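Researcher: Here's a chain I'd like modeled. Treat it as a single chain, no partners, no ligands.
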Amino acid sequence: MLFTRMVRQAVKETTGIFGIAVHPNPRPALLNLYRHTLYKIESLPETSVYRKSVQAIVFQRLSVVQKEEDVQKIESTIGAGQIEELILQAEDELKLIDKMAEWKPWEPLEVPAPPGQWEYFGGQSS
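Model: Modeled as a single isolated chain. Structure tokens:
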């Protein structure tokens, strides 16, 4: 099975997406990125909506990658592009965690929002 998987991955010469090269060993790279994301996201407050969202997505994707060896099945189960795109998404998420820690969007506003700030298209704010 391992040999078959390696042959199938070796056959892939291009992603067909300009600027995105075929990753030589994508599954272990993705596992590492997801584990690192889960570790890093713990630095944010547990009540943060961003933290909860990232954890939910990454836990779901990590379980798929852990259970499945076949890259094509991983791609189809997650449904968010080729595995190389998933790697890029995970790398971007890691960068965003640092930015979110810097921005602290879970903290109250420094200046109260003006009246009507959160009312859109004539609707009432909740």
